What we know:
CATH superfamily: NAD(P)-binding Rossmann-like Domain
CATH topology: Rossmann fold
Bound molecules: nicotinamide-adenine-dinucleotide, UDP-4-deoxy-4-formamido-beta-L-arabinopyranose
Structural class: alpha/beta
Order of helices and strands: EHEHEHEHHEHEEHEEEHEEHEEHH
Number of strands: 14
Amino acid sequence: MADDGYVLVTGGAGYIGSHTVLELLNAGYKVVVVDNLVNSSEEAIRRVEQLAGNVHVPFFNTDIRDYDGLDKIFTQYKVSAVLHFAGLKAVGESVQKPLEYHDNNVAGTITLLKVMRAHGSNVFVFSSSATVYGDATRFENMIPIPEECPTDPTSPYGHTKLIIEEILRDVAGSNDAQIKVGILRYFNPIGAHPSGRIGEDPRGIPNNLLPFVAQVAVGRREKLQVFGNDYDSRDGTPIRDYIHVVDLAKGHLAAVKKLNSITQPAFSREWNLGTGNGSTVFEIVHAFEKATNKPIPVEVVGRRKGDVVNLTAKPSRANTELDWHAQLTIDDSCRDLWKWATANPWGYGEQPDK
Ligand code: NAD
Ligand code: WQD
């Protein structure tokens, strides 16, 4: 349960952040959201407020690189914990714009940590990614991937995640800020809230599999391009550990609870948030077809640069130490995504030039 402070959620208007804000409110936490809306809409916060029973969520359209802006918010609200989702996340774009990614993600996190230090706020949960592992099949016996797997990200986006992890371990290990840190390495988040009111609303052409499939199903796109069927897997397509976004959101509450219970000052820990089960691209497409009763036209094309054959989590550390388990299935995710996509075929926005 909550103590008397606020949980400050950066990136709280985004896909995973909005689902986590809702879970926090449902569990009785007081929440304040900071988001510059570069990849999201304030409408997500309005809907979260409704879903939580018309609870008011203070929202600030502030960039995390803005020290003074953050400082004002930390002065106004006693922040007992920070959940840090804000960041740019498109792998391909990060190759084109590495400086923007390092500035936004790394410099933004440093600014946030400085403000936390100034206000004595000492619980920090970071949205890291399985992308920090790179290709875990370069080792024997590293699938499913444990947290001890050596890291080797392959994109500027992945580098920002690993650099931030290193900064956090340094900060947690010093007497300077005395911040307790939870590093959550997400595998592949999918699905939407079962209400169909909040979900993922990517700008432009979706990079990720499920949002693309959903846009094919609602008629926004003609077909799915499958990036290679010549991998060493049961049907030739790559394997990922797809996790329902509501399970993922609940993992953050488990991490906050754990960090609140830690009495030692210098603490940091990495936890994989995944299910431990891998699915191929074709298995996901078939699950979505089953959930929607709609055929998804596919075309197999060449491999996408940077893709690896298998990213499946070993989630046992989070299972044991956080007392958290993913509970929802791929079928649940497809059902909930479909509900969101049919109720909101244009996401939070309106159909352009009807
Ligand atoms: P998202 O883009 O929906 O959410 C990120 C939010 O951060 C957006 O609302 C955006 O407007 C905001 N933001 C970005 N830069 C900001 C800045 N400088 N100041 C303030 N707000 C800013 O993405 P998401 O899928 O919800 O991802 C949340 C976090 O989880 C990200 O850090 C992402 O890297 C990480 N992550 C995501 C995935 C995934 O597949 N979705 C997987 C692993 C890790
Ligand atoms: C999944 C599978 C594709 C789209 C990315 C980031 C990672 C993390 C999660 C943030 C792959 C295939 C996809 C399409 C396809 N994000 N695919 N056609 O690449 O596992 O991970 O999101 O941290 O960092 O890299 O997810 O959804 O893009 O792809 O065939 O149009 O679907 O080849 O096998 P990925 P994804």
